[in-house]
């Protein structure tokens, strides 16, 4: 066989009587043919020609059937054609092979015979659009379990992108010969051939499928490990120890560093959000946005974003964590842009928000709910007719603070607790003051006394007040030695009465605040709870509270016997009735009659038969149907008029009736409106658990990913990692069986440590 890189001169053998010439003449003609075919061949090319001839001898038996077809046209001329020297080049391809080559676009340095010869010599070689490729590598594509470090399949040979290099024809031919040879003897191509041999009794697709399953099973174990660490709020660096244990038990995993764990956590969080939010958008669910602002342990301002939505399969609205975003600026404009960009990135386009965003809830910060240029105002400009809702828990605390601030008498109770707060929240006092030891004996953490009637929820104020109540004798004993002024206040019976009154009031506020924070509390249930608390405060105004009724017995008890109680006119008691009247008035103003919310409550009452004026209702209820039209605009959902009339008629006749479908969905949409930002506060609590002082190097995006998995992910026992591993593989990430990943650092033991175990 001649040099495949040299130019081949076509020579068609004569037909007819010349086919019976002697073998000697044939050999002479062949020698002459070879000299014409390969003129002045360099030694290097001659050696390469000899290699190809020897390889042809070895493979001729395997390709016997193909050779027979190639020899059919030449047998009339050469009946005794037995050798495999250069005359083999004269063998013409079968008609079908010839037609295939004729239809190919060949490299510019090859002709048809060269292309045929190379594709016959290298069965894996294919030509497409003038470029070379490997059909075996393009079939298998990945080494799978046979992958090694620094060994990978060439992308150019897979994608048919191999082209010659050089400025002249000879150089370009030599370039192709070199590339073909190097790929043929490459380690990666050899492993591909081994895989093909293993697939003799199985299809390539099944082989790849089985191998992929093996790779996926190994990677699933790594994903489960990362998922468990995130769910338990453990540092991702713990994966090295966890994987080391798995390897000790016989598992082999290459994704064993914290860098791999971080990438895996990012991928899981991204896939979770993509799947969940895609389902919400496809269902065209109505949503309510909840945001709040706070700072991390590293003093970075962050914005936490939640949304509450109603879906067909869930009986109650679902609260979903969206993202935690870092705020470079805390202006309303920047917060609004960050919020809108985040929602758009999650798939909630502006068109979707215009059709399905029904409410926005946050605390009362001016930046967010300011009437002139707050975030809520900007949302109304872009998405009109949405409900802007101020967190009820914050409004509840503000109603109490407003009531206290309107009292003209000096509030000695508040001054005293603020003084305690300032004393015991100094670092040296916290650590060295002997009061801490005494308080522990009474199972009371007096150091945790916080401010009351400040920017905290009612439950926090109640905790501070009850701490003072339980530690009252201890506080007096301590202050009588070091703070005489504070001891005198404690000895004043008016102060004890004020403390008891405030605890009774704060208990009612705490009960209401806790009920409002419940995930099952909707806007209509909240209205009922507020009215119930107002009635309880009115009853307190008439009678005495639980703690007020204990004062006389406490003064006579052994615990309080060492306190010389007196009535000091310098410290007047709080005006009890005025305080309670102010609280009731402000609760009505802030919680029940706040701007447009009063009219919104009236519209929502259409869906609650218990609030209907039955004595005014006739069938059909014309006044109710007029309100129904406005309710549909608020909810951005059309309630069927016939369903509403049936709903009214059934409730007039009986209390226990079935609710029509459109009425049921409207009630669920009303429940979608969040009444407080308690969920955002829970999110910040989780953020503080994740981003501790030890892990304060975590970026906000990483914290957001960890919160996503923690808040949206299933429990580990119910979580299936396989879909996440497959999407990980589809993103061209490396699997656990791939050795071409960053290796974890190995711990080096000192010789003295190892010597202990070498003792005889």
From TrEMBL:
Enumerate the InterPro entries for this protein.
RNaseH-like_sf (IPR012337)
Extract one GO molecular function annotation from the record.
Answer: SUMO ligase activity
Q: Which residues form the signal peptide?
A: none
Name one process (GO BP) from the record.
protein sumoylation
Region Disordered, annotated ranges = 1-29
This chain belongs to the protein called Zinc finger protein 451
